[in-house]
Design goal:
The chain has about 280 residues and is mostly helical. It folds into 2 domains: about 1-140, no CATH class; about 145-275, no CATH class. It is built from 8 helices and no strands. Helix 6 packs across helix 7. The longest helix has about 40 residues, at about 200-240. The two termini are about 30 Å apart. Bound molecules: zinc ion. Zinc ion binds near residues 75, 78 and 80.
Length: about 280
């Protein structure tokens, strides 16, 4: 597979990531419940439109990154400015697809056959896409939606199979992923009298465990806590006046650590096999 493993393949992966990032924006914007739509909205119908003037956005104004820069982040019809967050989500997804390419089909891939590496890329790309959606919905609404995590747990378990995991590995991962945070939450509640980890976080970790096993869960939980503490300290230092009134969602930190582990795992496994 010369093209897939060439730098052209990398550029193609980034392009694919930009397009999926564009779709991630739609999911992030439409899936969460609102007063008008308690179940969230469809990501298919209606087509993209300006949230201010409802004018449909034509395909040529909907090209990832370029349209935003070309129109300077404004609606062509009414001139309302769109949040630069749209740009960030597209760029982030594009970059993560590029990294996923490098770690599977590129230089960072393991010595596996080309088709296994391609399957690994598809799974990694799907996983990072899901983590991007979870992260930004959690930032916006402090919510991790069941309609994202529950179907993804089933998909992740099947993906584990496709990568040759034993049938029980994903199940153990799901059990530890869901049970661990639940137990921590229970203990925290007994000790401190308030909620620590939510069940949304537990389902997110069950999703991580379904694909990456119990080690992925443990890594994400500890890695997420470390990233969360660092960001929390910075956040606290900057918002000295309104101390602790704004609680940070934990999902983005778990997702970041899980993505790190997703890419690092084959290398960590190799390291321990050699030691
Ligand atoms: Zn408009």
């Amino acid at each position: 597979m010369p093209f897939a493993t060439s730098w052209g393949g990398c550029a193609f992966a980034v392009l694919l990531g930009l397009l999926w990032g564009s779709f991630a924006n739609v999911c992030i914007y439409r899936w969460p419940p609102t007063e008008e739509f308690p179940e969230g909205r469809s990501v298919v119908k209606p087509g993209s439109h300006c949230s201010a003037c409802k004018a449909p956005i034509h395909w040529y104004d909907n090209v990832p990154l370029l349209s935003y820069l070309w129109l300077r982040g404004r609606c062509r019809a009414c001139g309302t400015s769109f949040s630069p967050r749209y740009l960030l989500v597209e760029a982030l997804t594009g970059a993560l697809f590029g990294v996923a390419w490098w770690f599977t089909l590129g230089m960072g891939g393991m010595y596996e056959t080309a088709d296994v590496r391609l399957v690994r890329f598809v799974i990694d790309a799907w996983f990072v896409f899901t983590m991007v959606v979870v992260t930004f919905i959690d930032i916006d609404h402090k919510l991790i939606l069941d309609k994202v995590t529950i179907p993804s747990i089933a998909l992740a378990y099947l993906a584990g199979f496709a990568l040759g995991h034993a049938w029980w590995e994903g199940l153990v991962g799901i059990a530890i992923g869901y049970g661990g945070p639940w137990l921590i939450g229970e203990l925290y509640y007994r000790l401190r009298g308030r909620e620590g980890l939510g069940l949304g976080d537990a389902k997110l970790l069950a999703l991580v465990g379904a694909l990456l096993g119990w080690k992925g869960v443990v890594f994400s939980l500890f890695g997420g806590s470390v990233i969360g503490s660092i960001v929390g300290i910075v956040h606290l230092a900057r918002a000295r006046k309104e101390i602790m009134t704004t609680e940070l969602p934990f999902g983005p930190f778990l997702a970041a650590a899980a993505v790190f582990y997703l890419f690092a795992e084959p290398w960590i496994e190799l390291y321990f096999r050699l030691v």
